[in-house]
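Morning, I've got a small favour to ask if you have a moment. It would help a lot if you went through both lines with me. I owe you a coffee for this, so here goes:
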Amino acid sequence: MAALMTMLIGGANAQEKPSVKLYGFIRNYACFDTRESLTSNSEQFYYMPKDERLDPNGDDINEQPNIMLLSITTRLGLNITGPEFLGAKTSAKIEADFAGFGTSNTVFRIRQAYAKMDWGKHRVLVGQAWHPMMGDMMPDVFSLETGAPFTPFSRSPQVRYDYSVKGLTLTATALYQYQYTSSGPKGSSYDYARNAVVPEVYLQAMYKNERFQAGVGLDILTLKPRQEYNWGVKDQNGNPVLDNNGEQVKAAFKCKEDMLVSFTPNVFASYKGDKWGVKGRVTYAQNAGHLSMISGYAVTKIKDNGEQEYSSLRSIGGWFDITYKQRLKTGFLTWCWFAGYTKNLGCSDDIVGDIYMRGEKNMDYMFRVAPSVLFTHNAMSIGIEYNGTTVAYGTPDSKYKVSDTHSVINHRICAMLRYNF
């Protein structure tokens, strides 16, 4: 879309050329953990500590400390400002880092790539960008997960429309999964959303002035978990067709199951003073694993013909952070106090089959406390952060509600050195 817009602008007025500004940073990130945890991006993106795994001697195998130092989140970006197009101001962004997946862990990947048209009150964005549920307000922690899984975290290809007047912005977005995907019978894949044909839809209303911001939004996700399934063949009279060994013949059938529709609302607010700032968000998650939250769906009915029905797994997550900016003779310190909590609310129906979700399947609740301090002088930033994440694990019932819990905690200490340009 950015290339197409550039060609259209060039054809309309060959004398005007877009201006391009390079930005980015070199980021070195080190982390120490006291136990094995669920992570991604070479253990830099942190979710939660794993449950106890006791050997015959009663020793916890997952109580294993580890440490890493990586530079793969080093980032490069281009901000592009172009001439008018159909009366709109035009701009574009291309942003990438080295945290993709491949035979080596330094694969150049797209983070954002979009074109935007701005008519003042009306704006249209097309391309890959932050999911609007989190992109309008993020925690101020410098850890890579940026508050997940207590808050949504995702970048998605999308078509976004904003209407703004007197500080109020109304947003409607159609999104398509790519890097952040839902779970299902084939593992984590964007096929379940693509085969549903209906795009993910996000609607939001937000008010913002120089110091205060507040909003409410609703995410609607439609999935088709299966395209085909194996089941026993029957004849015209409904009797099983048997093979030479007397066993029922099985074959692949085209899946005609009802699609799963899930709703994830959220509310958020922030206030920013001269030195102090406070932010917070609460999200009621239904099947929001593609948003990096502890959520998913499960099989709640198996019909006589082998087709299934599904219900969303529900959770509620919230976070807040407080920041203080302290100016020094040379540079400044940014102090941040982050806290997050998420609670498993189970399923509305009894689960009779597989569970597809992000996170551990026997979690009752989880909370995190993560204070940090970042020193910045000119182009250089140096910071340290403590992340204490506690999970209550237990025994789930037929509705995935967990009881008889015990707590597991991981202590993570992170240090970062970043050179901005």
